[in-house]
Amino acid sequence: MAIFRLSGVHVKHCKNTAKMSAVRIPVPKTVNVPMSMHIGAPARPIVKVGDEVKVGQLIGEAGAGLSAPVYSSVSGKVKKIDEMLNIAGGQIQTILIETDGLQSVDESIAPFEVSTREEFLDAIAKSGIVGLGGAGFPTLIKLKADISKIDTLLINGAECEPYITSDTRTMIDDAEAVADGIALVKKFLEIKNVVVGIEKNKPECISSMKKALSGIDGATVRSLPSVYPQGGEKVLVYHTLGRVIKEGGLPLDCGVIVMNCTTVAKISKFIRTGMPLVEKCVTVDGSAIKEPKNVIAPIGTPARDLVEFCGGFAEEPRKALYGGPMMGIALTDLSAPVLKQTNALLVFGEKEATPPPVTPCIKCGRCIDHCPFGLDPTAISKAYKANDPETLEKLKVNLCMECGCCSYVCPARRNIVQRNKMAKTMLRNFQIERKKREEAQKNG
Ligand code: SF4
Ligand code: SF4
Q1: How far is CA 422 from the centre of its chain?
Q2: Last residue of a domain, one of 227, 257, 273
Q3: CA angle (300, 305, 309) in 5-degree steps
Q4: What percent of the chain clears pLDDT 70, i.e. is strictly above it?
Q5: C-alpha to C-alpha distance for 104 and 121, rounded to whole angstroms
Q6: Tens digit of pLDDT for each residue in 20-48?
Q7: Which of 228, 234, 373 to mutate to test the pocket of ligand 1 (most atoms within 8 A of CB)?
Q8: Which residues line ligand 2 (CB under 6 A)?
Q9: Would residue 240 count as lying in a domain?
Q10: DSSP track, 190-207
Q11: Is the CB–ligand 1 distance for residue 417 below 6 Å?
């Protein structure tokens, strides 16, 4: 078992927008709503070109198994349904809607009356809510799990990535919704304890959540050291509860459900109003952004509209990311739409976007010292280059959560995360082939 340690790295926080409540962007001219903004099967479009749609109207039915429905974030007309390149590099069916600027709401939207676990889960199935901390895991699947061994609901309020403050603002401006979402999940899943983990560099969030949770039995707020990657699920479970998620296991295996603070706030809003997940708060920041802000935008809003709303560019943009500088995904152009799990758009100019030159490894071991799992990136790199998946398995590269601490501390500026990603793929393919061989042998 790899080691969890209070290592990680002390990153510059750069929380420039922490004091800025979110402001709503004007309705964009068009939105591109992808059918996959979650882990699992894509949703299936149920509208056709030319259809009029309203805010909150179902436009994509959940696919089979692990999936989530998709709703229109605007009112207007469907102009196109086509495959589009998503930010991960795959082609995904996307519905382009030309807006009418009216934001007329679907007539069927109404608050839910829920009094049993089944009714609560039936409602969540219609919410379109996925993990909003970045992972995009369908919330229904998490809540439908076997809850017999669960004793703790752990709320992730760490927001440890530099720049991003969208969860921060939720915990300050929407603390009542976070508390109500917690109360709903706690009640219907019959969970005894609630712990909200917040990094200690967010005192306003800590006091606002303590106040909001005061009426909920068994709910506490835990102040955590400001160490990246405090918000990583396994790291958070260990640092707040002292429990270790075994290799290949889930928080469920050690009695915990982990949910992001904004996700539970959305659950509350959905149950109380009936409006599914159609908009997202996005931190727009970075050296190339003229007026950084927290922006509430309809799902599908192009990144360029966010930039325009934030006063345009302060300098020539060189690099744009959805997400934080440690784990964010680089955008190839600014037409990329805001997704359900998008929490930041960062755009950097020349200085921040130009990486220092890569030099040979000096075997200093800093990458190992700062990895929360004690992985050995230099050995992983060697095994990958030697095309040796068996050694990669022994080195537990599969545990790498791509947090970027190793790259961040490396004096040689080596792109360790990229190498680890490729090594993980090599190991996964090897394990698939090995399983096939074993099954073939078993079947004679
Ligand atoms: S990216 Fe992987 S190897 Fe590097 S510090 Fe994070 S978990 Fe460890
Ligand atoms: S931190 Fe960089 S230079 Fe040091 S051992 Fe790791 S890869 Fe090599």
Answers
A1: 22
A2: 273
A3: 130
A4: 98
A5: 27
A6: 999 999 999 999 999 998 888 999 999 99
A7: 373
A8: 361-367, 377-378, 410-412, 414, 416
A9: yes
A10: T--EEEEEEETT-HHHHH
A11: yes
The tokens of 24 are what? Answer: 């709503």
The answer to whether the predicted template modeling score (pTM) of the entire model surpasses 0.70 is yes
Query: Which of 417, 424, 425, 427 is the best mutation target for the ligand 1 pocket, counting ligand atoms within 8 Å of the beta carbon and taking the most?
Result: 417
Region 159-173 average pLDDT: 97
Ligand 2 atom closest to 378 (CA): 7
Residue 7 near residue 371 (C-beta atoms within 8 A)? yes
**How many domains, the chain?**
2
What is the residue range of 391's domain?
A: 366-442
Give the domain CATH number at 200.
3.40.50.11540
Last residue of a domain, one of 273, 303, 323: 273
Cα–Cα distance between 334 and 313 in angstroms, integer? 12
Ligand 2, atom 4: nearest CA belongs to which residue?
Answer: 364
CA 365 to ligand 2: nearest atom: 5
Residue 396 lies in a domain: yes
Q: How far is the CA of 366 from the centre of ligand 1 (A)?
A: 11
Query: Domain for residue 133, yes or no?
Result: yes
- Each residue's pLDDT tens digit, 365-402: 999 999 999 999 999 999 999 999 999 999 999 999 99
